[in-house]
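Human: I'm a chemist; would you kindly supply sequence and structure tokens for a protein?

Assistant:
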Amino acid sequence: MSNSTSRFSLSKNNGPNQSDPHNNNNNRLEKSESVKQDIRVNLYELILPRSISGDNLHSLLSSLTPLLAVKFSSKPKIEGSSIESEGKPYFVLEDLWESYNEWSAIGVEVPFKQIDHETVAQYFAPSLSALQLYVEDDQGLKKSSEEKSGLEPSKKTTTKLVYQFFEDERPHERMHLINKVSILAEERPYIKTYRSSDISPCSWFSVAWYPIYGIRAKPTLKNIKAAFLTFHNLSAHFKSKNQPKLHDGDGPLKMPLPIFGLTTDKLKRSILAFPKARESTQLNTLLKAADDWLDSLNVVSHYDHNHFVRHGKQWVEEKKDK
């Protein structure tokens, strides 16, 4: 079994100030909510699959974005009707991990367009890099001086960290993502059973993508060493009416789980350098979003992110379109 860091926690485990864990945790979560609103850009246009058109960053993001089967909670029957109305959409975490099953076994194909406009493929294998699960804990009716004075007591809801995992194994020693999750779930079954509606919007995970070779008989990039770390929010509270909905034929409704942050390693001087001005701006937005997100939650033990930042140039020069 991996020696990866995995622990159950009801309190803050990161950050230098431990004098008042409760207040620090609340302040951190309030900050993360604010940062989340600031750093989340509308990436749906960015990630929806479409044919490659010279935009290698778009191709990377769309290829590494999982599509999840979406379910709907049932609402009580409307009075006088025999039909239950459709409730809010959600997904089960097990379905999320299963969406990486094939990718874990054979890698995911990412098409890239070279300078000579020839399209070649590169394959990347995913491994679980980090996971944090937060839940909203209803503290019930708060007894206070207001209650004693006859006023209606206030209802207090707090958010707490219930699980976190950070991978620290070397890339070539890691398990397939789906296998790693199964082992972690032996001790914490809710890693698979939670619904997205059960957990806080602060919940997130990241996936490390390393290049692999010799998978299929197609032209591939040679000697590429670039690796990526994608960040995804786990609690997809679907609120936007304009949110894209994808159907897989006659199968269940599927929706993408967007990449809101990205960290890169060994990107410089490769085909993946994204030379276009628009691409470099988008890349910097994603790079900063990942950094800001971890900072907002005081995450200091994300080994992959720390390694990528130490050994790779994260910020790219934003070129001007001519």
The chain has one domain: 5-11+19-311. The longest helix spans residues 277-296. The chain has a mean pLDDT of 72. The two ends are 54 Å apart (CA to CA).
